[in-house]
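FORM 7B - TANDEM STRUCTURE REPORT

SECTION 1: FIRST PROTEIN
SEQUENCE AND TOKENS:
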Amino acid sequence: MSYDNELYQQVILDHNRNPKNFREIKNATHHCHGINPLCGDDMTVYMEVDSEQGVIRDISFVGTGCAISKASSSMMTAYLKGRSLEESRVIFDEFHKMVLGELDPEKQEHHLGKLKLFRGIRDYPSRTKCASLAWHTMIGALDKKTEEISTE
């Protein structure tokens, strides 16, 4: 097993067991519900957005899901807290392209930081929806979507 693969597994398991920002934000300015029917992932993303400054002040999630989904949600919330809305959309786009195999963080410029750990997901197409559910749900929350987001 390669070092990268071992590190990936350790990080996924840690964030699954001890997710960051796993809670509801009571006075959230934005929220959205998302599901991945293929895996059974079901979550809601909550955000407190400072619209004057265009910044995510707080972001969290609640729900159930596989280890990849929960770890991706945990890492997403930790990474996006305090970032601008514009930067968050860029990071979403780069993350989505990376898990689909359209962006190689080892060869292309990106803003993913530790999130590049998920680059191996592209080798498992059935798991890309697990890794990206929270991200699509976060964008749905930013866009104030009222319908459920589905990775179907």
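SECTION 2: SECOND PROTEIN
SEQUENCE AND TOKENS:
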Amino acid sequence: MSRRNQITMTDAEIDAFLAEERVMSVATVGADGRPHVVAMWFGFVDDAPAFWTYGKSQKIINLRRDPRLTCLVESGNAYNELRGVEIVADAELIEDAGRVLDFGVQITERYQNITVTDTMKPMIAKNAAKRVVVRLDIKKVVSWDHGKLGGVY
């Protein structure tokens, strides 16, 4: 078995990894063809990774022009701890106010470890009014978990 095949995560391992990690590096294509890379908090829409950002952000400007993006979620410090998932995707821009608010609630609960109450929703809705959700329409996934090598490199 190749080393590449040894370290590839299963679909279930990828799902668990994405559920536990908190930061996704998002690369879009700028007008000059150069990558524009930023770190984003992320959640899920219809089981696909997603993030939200301001509608006037450079990411959204880039994605309106060219919907292609590549995202990376990684963890680990020592070689045997390195794990990661690269997602090559096209962006689905979600601008429906109700769906954006729902995502805002999800992100708030995920990152602040709270349950959003009805009294909190107007504050999230105010922020959501300026945002767009980007759902990843996945084309390709590459994963690695160096812990699967069992210390043999």
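SECTION 3: OBSERVATIONS ON SECOND PROTEIN
Strands lie at 23-29, 35-41, 43-45, 48-54, 68-75, 83-94, 131-145.
Residues 3-95+131-146 form a domain with the Pnp Oxidase; Chain A fold (CATH 2.30.110.10).

SECTION 4: SIGNATURE
Preparer initials: ____
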